[in-house]
Amino acid sequence: MIQPQTAPEVDGETRTAPRLLVADPESALVEELAVILEREGVEVMGVGDGAQALLQAGALQPDVVLVSASLPVIGAVEFIRAVRLTRAVPVLLGVGEGHAEQAVQALSAGATACVARPYRVPELLPLVQAAIAGDSGARRTLVVGNVELDVNAYQVKVDGRIVHLPLREFELLHYLMRNAHRTVTREQIMRNVWNSTGAASTNTIAVHVKRLRARLGDSDDQLIQTVRGVGYRLVGSS
C-alpha cells in the first residue's frame, strides 16, 4: 500500500496501475483491502480521516476514492461535497448498518455508488474497475418479477413504486436477487449478508425475511420461498 506522505509526484508521472484512495478509520481493514486489491493491479493509498482524504485527493490525484460513511474529522458527505467543487473523481461510499440516511445524502452530494462495509472484494472490485474506466454502465440494476433493485442508488421498486428498506434488508434482497431461482442456505446468507462465518442464526434470518416480505407485499410467500431445513429461494412473481 502506498503511504500518501511519501508518494511520488503526480505531474509528469507515467502510471501503469490505477490508484484507489481509501479513507477509513480502521487501518487494519484498509491494509487487508490493499493486499487483495494490489494483487488485482490496483494501487491503494490509505488515510484515516476526511481531512487527510481531502488533502491526498488533491495531491495524489487518485483515479477513484472509497470513503467510509463513518469517516471522522470531516464526514463522508462533507468530503464528497468538497471534492465535487473541484474534481469529478468517482467516489464510492462504504456503508454499514445504520448508514441508510447517509447513503441517500452521499448520493445526492455526488457519490458514484454505495458498497457494503465491511468491504467484500467481489462486490467492490467491479465498481472500482468500472469507475476507473469511466464506464457509464457501472450503474447496476437487477430485476426479478415485479421487483427492481438499483445497486448503486440503494433503491428498490415494486411495480414501479419505491420501497424503502433498511440496509440489512436491502443487502438480503440483493443477495437473493443475485441468486434468483436458486436455493441459498442459511449459512450462505450469514456469510454473504452478515459477513459472518459463525453458525447461522435461524431466528435472525427468519425475522429479516419476514420483514422483507412484508415491505415487498409478499403476503403469501410466493416471491421469497422457504425451503424447509435448508434456506430460501427468490423466484419472482408470475
What do you see in this structure?
It is a single chain. The chain is of the alpha/beta class and 238 residues long. The protein folds into two domains: 4-138, Response regulator (Rossmann fold, 3-Layer(aba) Sandwich); 164-234, Orthogonal Bundle (Arc Repressor Mutant, subunit A), CATH 1.10.10.10. Helix content is 37%, strand content 21%. The protein contains eight helices and twelve strands. The protein has helices spanning 27-39, 50-59, 76-84, 100-109, 121-133, 167-178, 186-192, 202-216; strands spanning 19-23, 43-47, 64-68, 91-95, 113-116, 141-144, 147-150, 155-158, 161-163, 183-185, 224-227, 231-234. The strands form three sheets. Strands 2-1-3-4-5 form a five-stranded parallel β-sheet, sandwiched between helices. A four-stranded antiparallel β-sheet has the order 6-7-8-9, with helices on one face. Helix 1 links the parallel strand 1 and strand 2. The radius of gyration is 19 Å and the shape is elongated. The N and C termini lie far apart (50 Å). Residues 5-14 and 135-139 have low confidence and may be disordered. Residues 139-236 form the OmpR/PhoB-type domain. This is Sensory transduction protein RegX3. One of its GO terms (biological process) is regulation of DNA-templated transcription. One of its GO terms (molecular function) is transcription cis-regulatory region binding. Pfam families: Response_reg, Trans_reg_C.
